[in-house]
Design a protein that fits this description.
Number of strands: 9
Structural class: mainly beta
Strand order of the largest sheet: 4-5-3-8-7
CATH superfamily: SET domain
Radius of gyration: 14 Å
Order of helices and strands: EEEHEHEEEEEH
Largest sheet: 5 strands, antiparallel
Strand content: 25-35%
Number of helices: 3
CATH class: Mainly Beta
Shape: globular
Distance between the termini: 34 Å
Number of domains: 1
Length: about 140
Amino acid sequence: MFISSLGHLADTGTPKGLGVFATRNIKAGEIVEKAPVIQIRCDFSNLSPELKSRVFHWARLASRQGVHAVALGYGSMYNHANPANMQYGAVDNGTAIQFVAATDIAAGEELTINYNDTGGTPVSTHDNWFELQGITPHAPTDNDA
């Protein structure tokens, strides 16, 4: 069973480009989306730059060594925040990924995940995912609120 997202895709109005925004108020602990994944078996270094910024570390999340996963639905479209307002994890024997609200989320708020913790938690002590991927993130602006 898959649960469609409680979000919609829209321009963030920032250099981040597209983001996913809550369509209604969401309570902490509520499932925001449960989506199937496409599993890709290959070394991370062999993925295209576009895929590197969209895949999940399936070896860590679903115990599938050498596998990365592209989430369908909005799953691979959520932008980064630390702390994020959602957490995620593999479900259904590794065939899907589930996103759960880590905090109360207001209607219209951007839905975010923490890219730094490949285990899916919303907060990490290191904020170096972009650096490790060789990506320069945009500088936060007043529009990022």
